[in-house]
Amino acid sequence: MTTIRLTKEFSFEAAHALDGYDGPCREIHGHSYRLFVTVKGTPGEDPRDPKYGMVMDFGLLKRIVNEEVVSRFDHALVLRASASGDALRRLLADRFGNIVAVDYQPTCENMLADFARRIAARLPQGVRLHSLRLNETATSFAEWFAEDNG
Questions:
Q1: Domain residue spans in the chain?
Q2: According to its UniProt record, which residues of this chain constitute the active site (predicted)?
């Protein structure tokens, strides 16, 4: 059996602020994120199956990532759900409709771990999440690999 990796690229715009951070990223600022999702598996071997030869339909991967990540985070303000930030989040929510409160500091690294959990849980049987890469800027990115997170 041949193992094949498939990668699909996604993009979304989001803003965040790092609660309590001691640098400029404590301020609300935005990024044009690029997310690369790589899955791996064995191509289907039943010639009668219309998906014969596919590890996974790219359309299904697109749907999963759009539902779990892009539709939630695109044009959102992502903030840590901390007690100190409750009043600010309520104030912003009165004016803006897409405030996403997360239970972690919304760094590129923590967002990747969250995305990995969300995506992996939705993949079809026999397909595994291999890696994620999240570009926060054109020159800065973080990566998540399944082999490191067994």
A1: 4-148
A2: 25, 75, 136
23: which 2 tokens? 């640098």
Phi first, then psi: give them for residue 32, nearest 5 degrees: -100, 95
Cβ-Cβ contacts under 8 Å for 132 (sequence gap 6 or more): 35, 36, 37, 38, 112, 115, 116, 119, 143, 144
Is 130 annotated among the ligand-binding residues?
no
Residue type at position 6: L
- Structural fold of domain 4-148: Tetrahydropterin Synthase; Chain A (3.30.479)
- pLDDT recorded at residue 140: 97
Q: Which residues are catalytic?
A: 25, 75, 136
Q: Is the pLDDT of residue 67 over 80?
A: yes
pTM for the structure as a whole? 0.93
CA atoms of 60 and 127, how far apart (whole Å): 12
